[in-house]
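Final paragraph of the annual report: two paired records, presented back to back.
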Amino acid sequence: MSDRGSYSGELSEAVDGSGMRIAVLTARFNSDLTEQMMGSVCRTLIEKGVADEAVDLYRVPGAWELPQAASRLARWGGVDAIIAIGVVIRGDTPHFDYIAGECARGLGQVALDHDVPVIFGVLTTNTAEQAEERADPKRMDKGREAALAALEMAAFYRRHR
């Protein structure tokens, strides 16, 4: 895995997920890539001390639904962080702009409205090849990066209650 364009190498040793509960929301659209990222998220969380039973997995239809589900989970409570995983690849129509933009806006709003970190693990790429590179645990591994960011932010929230 390359740490180019990532801070995961720097964070790798610094995070500890012991005693944390993490919700992982995964979009089914582009599932070949989102499932790969979800697997990397889960492996990283467990590697960093999160108990297997404290990783809650949820699936939603696509990136559009991620903010809705994140909002529901944030209101429900009981998690130290929410990781939203999706893949939106630019096509020939403006659909990409609406979905990617509203997904980002919605997840950001959930993070601001609720007292829980929400991690944007949504790939927004121009090509399928770019998405494949970013999702692949042997290359850019953005799933691992999202998991490490969730643990860092959850620890920050715990320190600053």
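The closing record of the year follows.
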Amino acid sequence: MIVVDSSVWIDFLNGVRSAEVERLLPLLGRQPLLVGDIILLEVLQGIRNEAEATRVEAGLRRFLVEPMLDAELAVVAARHYRRLRTAGITVRKTIDLVIGTFCIVRGHPLLTSDRDFRPMAEHLGLRLA
């Protein structure tokens, strides 16, 4: 199951034809996709009116929506943060660390256009779709 990051959903919703959106399009309706609760939050918080937010939420809920953090994953994410810091890499956003750790632990590839995930792929084994 592929996790689609908010960076890709936001481009998709805004009509941006990025390489990642082009990878997403053939997956829609053909491949099981996962939307993490944190990703749902990131997408919906950027929408300016309630009617549009309701429409987008309904569309994203067609996919599996799962929580991305619990006590065990929090410990692993903190370990990942320390490991990256030891390698001289600072994770800028904790939310990305949570998403990346969720994907690593659960074995899901991540479809993203956010370059902040590259160090997790290089040093922690995150698979990018």
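Helices lie at 6-13, 19-24, 37-45, 50-60, 71-86, 94-106, 118-124. This concludes the annual technical report; the extension proposal builds directly on these records.
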